[in-house]
Amino acid sequence: MRLLRTFDLMLQEADMTPDEIAKLTRFLQKTFDQPAVQVRKRPQKDDSGEVYMGEEFIGVVYRDDEDPDDLSYNFQMAILDFDLE
Asked: Model-level pTM greater than 0.85?
């Protein structure tokens, strides 16, 4: 039972909050000098957000809280071969 409780706490800690989404949106807008960047809550996942440029999906940002003393976020963007042409 203790193991299940620990697992439940880990899941709760992994949720990305609306405040984090807003902060990530501001950070990415400033970093890319692009006000059209927006982080949105994912429909089926709580540990990450979808990143859009306007209405175009460009990637996913994940919350990494595996180490409780070192919270970080990972941005993943796939670039398809035909997008480079």
From this structure: no
